[in-house]
Amino acid sequence: MNKTILYYLLTVGGVGLLAVGVYFIKTVEDPQGLLRALPYICVGLGCGLFGHAMGEVIIRSAMKKNPAAAKQLEIEQNDERNLAIANRAKAKAYDMMVFVLGALITSFALMAIDLIMVVLLVVAYMLILGYNSYYRYKYFKEM
User: Fold this and answer.
1) Contact assessment for residue 50 and residue 14, using Cβ atoms and an 8 Å cutoff
2) How far apart are alpha carbons 23 and 18 in whole angstroms?
3) In which band, very low, low, confident or very high, does the pLDDT at 45 lie, cut at 50, 70 and 90?
4) What is the rounded CA–CA span in Å between residue 31 and residue 39?
5) DSSP symbol at 35
């Protein structure tokens, strides 16, 4: 399948998820259980999917119209200095995220938020830390 068509489909899917989420928010009077969070999850995923896919569509369209700019963009994306800067920024953002997410989980637990929400955040937090540990060990063995 052509990647541009895929991104158009993802854009439509994002708008669809956004519309479904807004529809559920406006129509469901007294949400119970999963319906309390599902519309907001749909809105968040829809917005993210739409933004990412639409950005790719715009970039591909611009690259098609201007091949010289496309070549320059490819060179800049693969430049070692830019890659090193991007990796350092990711590392700093990850370091900050670990502390912010830990503080958020602690504050949610102290505020007596629903246990399911706290457990979901803890599972996500542990998944991120496990992913970090796995790759740290893998890269340590390689180098």
Assistant:
1) yes
2) 9
3) very high
4) 10
5) G
Q: How many angstroms separate the Cα of 27 from the Cα of each of 17, 18, 20, 22, 62?
A: 15, 14, 10, 9, 40
In b/e form, how buried is each residue of 60-74, taking b as 16+ CB within 10 angstroms?
Answer: eeeeeeeeeeeeeee
Cα 99 from chain centroid?
18
Q: Which of 89, 100, 90 is nearest to 124 (CA)?
A: 100
Identify which of 95, 106, 104, 86 has the alpha carbon closest to the alpha carbon of residue 129. 95
The set of residues, in sequence order, having a beta carbon less than 8 Å from that of 72 and lying 6+ positions away, is: none
Count Cβ atoms below 10 Å from residue 33 Cβ, excluding itself.
8
Helices (H), 33-114: 38-65, 67-78, 80-110
- Amino acid occupying residue 98: V
| Average pLDDT estimate for 13-20 | 95
Residue 91 token pair:
């590392």
pTM: 0.62
Give the pLDDT of residue 1.
62
Amino acid at 127: L
